[in-house]
């Protein structure tokens, strides 16, 4: 029985060993599969990204970024992995030296297994470090290796600005990474050597801790040596206080910079001290330099605090004056404010008919529509199908029939999410409904009798003042899914009556879905139908990343893009999207930051994306910008310097950049340092009434003739008001056309008299009894009154204000309509049915002699002629009757509202509006006929009159 049992046990043991081996193999296979899947997915993403970039001719950009990331990733992996392995290896060796075998866990004595564990931990830490280094440092490393000089040095250290923008950030990154890693290792060592107080008894543990502390001291010394350069781009003078100076201040110069050198020396001495004490075995005194260092750091903060409080604050301007000058000059340079031309604007009361005629181009381009109401109109009137949508309406200018005209323009894009539910099939969303169609364009200064925009391009296919040869919009602002063109399914082009017109995609900028590419992109898209569908052919193309903002960010993620792209119709009838790209930096010396730590910005790159092909071009808009030159060195095939003329003609100075510059100039226009220090002449953006609330005024585009110019040009401008005041003190503008693009100028108004500001005009509109009464009547009649943008329009040496008034009924399908236009000039303010009538009324007041027959009104009757007497009581009686009639109608209207009879109330309100319009038309007719009547009665009237008197 024993033999049997033994045999049985032996057999079971053999089975267990066999099963264990099988399980091990299964585990290895599962692990290998997981690794293959991870590597495969990562490789798939890289391969498909490369194919996509190559289809757009930007493969060199992809390989440059990938190479830099790989090299930095390898460097980060090596540093983190070697440092981790070195630390773990030393800890294990210290344990083996200090303890007996019986005191240690058996695992520590298994050399091969421990090596594998330590290598595994080191690899994990290395991968973590690799992701940090390559993710954060690849762009800084490329800039460091390829940077261009600014050609300007700082006034304190004499270093080129490029040192602060490119070199210093990379040095700080290296020091912080190594310092942080060494502190992490120190914490691990403290935890490991705290067991049984090894740090007191083990020579190896003490040496390990000492080496790590010494390296930390070395990194601290490097950190302090870099600190003085950092003072040139910060306002902090200590942990608790900030200076009024952006950049180097008095406290920095006198205390913080010398303190940084002292602390760097102490850190080095601390390192040497600890190494010597380690060699001598005097471990107890190693704490002394650490205590000295910490004490000096605290003392340095205290001294800085004392100097700022007791030396600088009592006499701040005198102490900070030389540093304020650098702050002023270098901030102007960082935001390109140094070349702004300042001029005096007299603000005269000189408006007359001749001036209006001389500036007909400016008058004809005064904007009568606003983007927000206009977008609603476009979406209701020019979409035609539920799946079409306008995402935005933009302002641009075109040469139309020989006239330079400012226009509104919007793209009719396709939104497949708005298709009927039964039509949301894979074929429809991926193969058939692939693009939007056409544009709508309207005048900025003309509206129909119903208050709707007057179109220049409209309908499907687009008809109007210009030919659009490629109206199909495959790429736009819509978050459109990837689609496949040139399939066996006909693409829907546009609706035509009861039928649909189909089309075939003719470009070759997509990704050919043939051979292995079809498999790769089916896996990348996670779309099995793409792989097996018989509706795809070898000629089929994948159009991926169709949102233009995602598209440019995917190609060049190192630029910052303006969030308001606009559509341009080129001379050949094709359409492109124009996007402004910004280049910015964080460490420009002495410059005040506009956002976070960013204190330098340029719009050096213009990007176009073809709406049909998706082709992307990056154009150099400011070739002399050092940041642009740096990126040209990094990516020589990315940016094109030659800009087509029909593209350059539609360059717009971006609103975001202009806003930043205008805000900075509101402070940095002050050249007197004492005035600048006290902020005595700070300018700010005015407020305006927009819709139903007061908001900060935004820059706006206008077409106008500048003083001294012979023709109108496209200008972006913004008024200024003094801080906490509402009168207009100046206005800033920037030119957009031709060789003058980017030229910024400021016109200052006289300070000794009031020039009305936008909010003052808004208040006067509110306080005008006739205007406010009419607006209130509309508001109470089931409609909403929308106040449009208030525009300040400079004309030669004077300025007028224009504001459109919209009326919109309170229902979902209503259309906002321009019903009135307010024009204000000096103390005069009028509201009329359109701009021409309002301007005419203003001219009647300020320039009465310009009206036809104005002189004849003042002529006396000739001999034998007599003016027909008029009973003065007649107009009074008529006015009283009209007022009584209005009062009765309004009472009836209020009664209908209280009874809930909405239809009757609306009818009464319509009657009221009709009578008001009739009275207004009658007044205009009387005014136009007044000169003729003033000539005197026709022959015979005198006799008739005499006979009547008899």
TrEMBL record:
Record carries keyword Nucleus: no
Start-end of Low complexity biased regions: 927-943
Domain of life: Bacteria
Keywords: Cell membrane, Membrane, Transmembrane, Transmembrane helix
Subcellular localization(s) per the UniProt record: Cell membrane
Topological type in the membrane: Multi-pass membrane protein
Biased composition (Acidic residues): 857-883, 914-926
Chain residue ranges for the region called Disordered: 847-950
Membrane-traversing stretches: 25-47, 70-92, 113-133, 163-187, 207-226, 260-279, 291-311
One cellular-component annotation, GO: extracellular region
InterPro entries in the cross-refs: UPF0182 (IPR005372)
Family the UniProt entry places it in: Belongs to the UPF0182 family.
Protein name: UPF0182 protein E4U82_11005
Origin species: Lentibacillus salicampi
């Amino acid at each position: 029985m024993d033999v049997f049992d033994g045999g049985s046990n032996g057999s079971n043991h053999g089975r267990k060993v066999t099963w264990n081996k099988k399980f091990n193999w299964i585990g290895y296979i599962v692990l290998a599969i997981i690794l293959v899947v991870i590597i495969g997915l990562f490789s798939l993403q890289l391969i498909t990204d490369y194919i996509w970039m190559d289809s757009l001719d930007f493969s060199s950009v992809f390989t440059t970024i990938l190479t830099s990331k790989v090299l930095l990733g390898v460097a980060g992996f090596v540093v983190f992995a070697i440092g981790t392995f070195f630390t773990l290896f030393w800890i294990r060796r210290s344990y083996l030296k200090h303890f007996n075998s019986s005191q240690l866990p058996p695992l520590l004595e298994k050399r091969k297994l421990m090596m594998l564990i330590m290598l595994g931990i080191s690899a994990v830490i290395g991968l973590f470090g690799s992701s940090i280094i390559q993710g954060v440092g690849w762009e800084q490393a490329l800039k460091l290796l390829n940077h261009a000089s600014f050609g300007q040095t700082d006034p304190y250290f004499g270093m080129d600005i490029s040192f602060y923008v490119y070199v210093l950030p990379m040095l700080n990154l290296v020091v912080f990474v190594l310092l942080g890693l060494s502190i992490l290792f120190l914490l691990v060592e403290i935890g490991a050597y705290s067991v049984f107080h090894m740090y007191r008894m083990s020579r190896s543990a003490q040496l390990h801790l000492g080496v790590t502390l010494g390296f930390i001291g070395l990194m601290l010394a490097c950190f302090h040596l870099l600190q003085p350069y950092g003072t040139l781009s910060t306002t902090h003078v200590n942990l608790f206080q900030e200076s009024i100076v952006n950049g180097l201040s008095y406290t920095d110069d006198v205390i913080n910079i010398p303190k940084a050198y002292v602390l760097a020396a102490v850190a080095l001495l601390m390192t040497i001290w600890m190494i010597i004490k380690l060699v001598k075995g005097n471990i107890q005194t190693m704490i002394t330099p650490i205590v000295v260092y910490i004490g000096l750091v605290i003392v340095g903060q205290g001294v800085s605090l004392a100097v700022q409080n007791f030396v600088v604050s009592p006499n701040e301007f005198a102490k900070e004056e030389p540093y304020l000058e650098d702050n002023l000059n270098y901030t102007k340079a960082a935001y390109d404010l140094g070349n702004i031309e300042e001029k005096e604007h007299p603000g005269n009361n000189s408006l007359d008919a001749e001036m209006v005629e001389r500036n007909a181009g400016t008058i004809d381009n005064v904007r009568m529509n606003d983007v927000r109401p206009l977008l609603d109109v476009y979406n209701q009137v020019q979409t035609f199908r539920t799946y079409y949508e306008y995402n935005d309406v933009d302002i641009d200018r075109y040469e139309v029939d020989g006239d330079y005209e400012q226009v509104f323009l919007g793209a009719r894009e396709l939104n497949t999410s708005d298709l009927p539910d039964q039509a949301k099939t894979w074929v429809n969303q991926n193969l058939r409904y692939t693009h939007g169609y056409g544009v709508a364009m309207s005048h900025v200064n003309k509206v129909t009798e119903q208050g709707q925009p007057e179109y220049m391009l409209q309908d499907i296919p687009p008809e109007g003042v210009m030919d659009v040869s490629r109206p199909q919009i495959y790429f736009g602002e819509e978050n459109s899914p990837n689609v496949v063109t040139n399939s066996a399914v006909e693409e829907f082009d546009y609706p035509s009556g009861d039928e649909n017109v189909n089309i075939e995609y003719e470009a070759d900028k997509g990704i050919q879905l043939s051979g292995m590419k079809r498999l790769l992109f089916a896996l990348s898209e996670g779309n099995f139908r793409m792989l097996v569908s018989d509706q795809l052919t070898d000629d089929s193309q994948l159009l991926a990343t169709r949102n233009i903002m995602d598209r440019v960010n995917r190609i060049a993620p190192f630029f910052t893009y303006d969030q308001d792209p606009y559509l341009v119709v080129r001379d050949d009838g094709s359409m492109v999207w124009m996007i402004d790209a910004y280049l910015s930096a964080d460490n420009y010396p002495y410059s005040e930051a506009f956002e976070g730590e960013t204190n330098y910005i340029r719009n050096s790159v213009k990007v176009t994306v073809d709406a049909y092909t998706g082709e992307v071009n990056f154009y150099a808009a400011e070739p002399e910008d050092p940041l642009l030159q740096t990126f040209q060195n990094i990516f020589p095939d990315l940016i094109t310097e030659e800009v087509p003329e029909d593209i350059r003609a539609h360059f717009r100075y971006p609103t975001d950049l202009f806003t930043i510059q205008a805000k900075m100039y509101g402070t940095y226009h002050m050249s007197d340092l004492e005035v600048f220090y006290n902020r005595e002449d700070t300018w700010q953006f005015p407020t305006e009434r927009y819709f139903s609330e007061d908001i900060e005024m935004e820059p706006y585009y206008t077409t106008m003739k500048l003083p001294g110019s012979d023709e109108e040009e496209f200008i972006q401008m913004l008024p200024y008001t003094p801080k906490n005041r509402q009168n207009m003190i100046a206005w800033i503008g920037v030119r957009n056309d031709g060789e003058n693009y980017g030229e910024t100028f400021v016109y200052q108004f006289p300070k000794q008299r009031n020039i009305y500001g936008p909010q003052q005009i808004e208040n006067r509109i509110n306080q005008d009894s006739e205007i406010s009464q009419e607006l209130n009547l509309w508001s109470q009649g089931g409609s909403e009154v929308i106040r449009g943008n208030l525009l300040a329009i400079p004309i030669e040496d004077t300025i007028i204000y224009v504001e459109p008034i919209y009326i919109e009924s309170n229902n979902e399908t209503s259309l906002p309509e321009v019903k009135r236009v307010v024009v204000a000039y000096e103390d005069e303010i009028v509201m009329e049915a359109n701009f021409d009538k309002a301007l005419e009324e203003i001219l009647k007041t300020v320039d009465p002699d310009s009206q036809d027959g104005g002189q004849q009104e003042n002529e006396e009757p000739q001999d034998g002629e007599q003016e027909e007497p008029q009973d003065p009581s007649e107009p009074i009686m008529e006015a009283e009757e009209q007022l009584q009639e209005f009062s009765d109608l309004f009472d009836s209207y209020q009664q209908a509202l209280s009874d809930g009879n909405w239809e009757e109330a609306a009818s009464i309100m319509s009657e009221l509006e009709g009578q008001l319009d009739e009275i207004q038309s009658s007044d205009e007719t009387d005014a136009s006929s007044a000169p003729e009547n003033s000539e005197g009665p026709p022959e015979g009237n005198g006799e008739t009159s005499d006979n009547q008197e008899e």
